[in-house]
Amino acid sequence: MHCPFCRHPDSRVVDSRTSDDGSSIRRRRQ
């Protein structure tokens, strides 16, 4: 799944990157 925020192909990377923003923290479950 590609994150609409950081556009990373890996949801795990998304969790770390958006974790600081707090916008996609809820999506980290995926």
Automatic annotation (TrEMBL):
GO molecular function: zinc ion binding
Ranges of compositional bias, category Basic and acidic residues: 7-24
Domain Transcriptional repressor NrdR-like N-terminal: 1-30
UniProt-listed InterPro entries: NrdR-like_N (IPR055173), RNR_NrdR-like (IPR003796)
Superkingdom classification of source: Bacteria
Region (Disordered): 1-30
Biological process (GO), any one: negative regulation of DNA-templated transcription
Pfam (any one): Zn_ribbon_NrdR
The protein's name: Transcriptional regulator NrdR
Organism for this UniProt entry: Streptomyces sp. SID12501
